[in-house]
Amino acid sequence: MTVIPRPRSIRARCTVAASLLALVTLAVVSITSSLAIRYRVQEDAFNQVEQVANRWSAAARAGTIPKVIPTSGDLALIQLVDPRGRVIAASHSALARSALSTLRPPVDDRVQRWSDGRRLLVAIRITTAAGAQVLLTEGREPALLRGHNLEYALTAAALVLLAIVSWTSWRTVGRTLRPVEEIRTRLAEITVSDLSLSIPVPPGDDEVAMLVRTANQTLDRLDEAVAQQRRFASTTSHELRNPIAGLRAQLEEALLHPGETDPHKTIRSALSVTDRLDAIVGDLLALARLGAGDPAPPELIDLGRLVSQEAPRAGRVPVRVHAASDVWVRGSHIQLARLLANLVSNAIRHAGSAVDVFVAASDGEAVVTVADDGAGIAAGDRERVFERFTRLDDARHRDAGGSGLGLAISRGIAQSHGGTLKAEDAPRGASFVLRLPRLDAPPVDQTERMRAVGHPAPQEAIEPA
Questions:
Q1: Which of 7, 162, 204, 347 has the fewest Cβ atoms within 10 angstroms?
Q2: Are 135 and 53 a contacting pair, CB within 8 Å?
């Protein structure tokens, strides 16, 4: 079985589809028109013959029909015959001929018509008597109906219309798809190394123009994402190079001068650097998971209770938790716990004497505020602290082993939960405010709610000394 190949071009497929639809439509219209025209033309021709026959049949009933019946036009054959088929009167051309037909209308149907494709014959019974005479009138079949002339003419007209439809479809689709070809050509020029190129926007507000605008917006986002990834890769390489270089220097010094170095001190220092590398790699892995958009299954979480559990029981400074009850959110327990731990740990590093954590509900939001009484953050640095590997001078002085990724991870977790994390104004020190979409408490008792998310029994707020 031979399979007809499907056209690869959209232009060709649209043209073929339009042509096939037009072909079916024209075929139906041509057949219908042929039948209608044949019926109409033949009906008109029969009516003309019948009019002449009616006039001479009336004359025959009145007894005034001449022996030689005068004719005009194409009606050259007229005969008046008796029941035996003998010609009683006829037109000049039919006098010497036998009866034009053996057709004899019955009493209850005085007028009958007949055609063989070349002739049109009308037979009229003069009276209803049993031995009544019959008037036979013969005319020519119209030239349009002879043979298949009508079908040939309609087929030719249909083919011309089909060609016009196909040509119009080809031109129209080609003109419509021309901008798409320009888009394809320009996209082929765009590479990962250069995403700054844009696609020319065609005039108008049709679908193609909207597609081009969307493609340009997507390219802009990709360009920004690639630039951000390059900056991140460069920064990551720099942050990893420093501890690796320090670790290498210590180990090389221990090998070159074994008698002048304390092996235990070298190992402890190497372990410290390894811990920092492990922290950086762990934070990078957390960022990668956040960027992959693969969130953990959502849980129903009592935010106040979670803060009370995650606040450290002992530390450099006390952590005071002020949590309202029944502040419910939905999200990942592990990720939100890490977010809160990052914020509290950051506040402890910068606090002078204490850290306060507030949990409240406000305008459909769950709000967590982590405030310290340290030196605070300058207004110009409040967004910069959330950038990856950003560590202010005060942070480097207080904790030289940090990765500079904690706040970036925390903001990423907040955004993945549909919330925000910002550094806001505070009377003293720094204040980080987390806002998450708040849920109404579900219609189950508190014990069932805590069991549903794996929380222990309720506890009082923790305030370590």
A1: 204
A2: yes
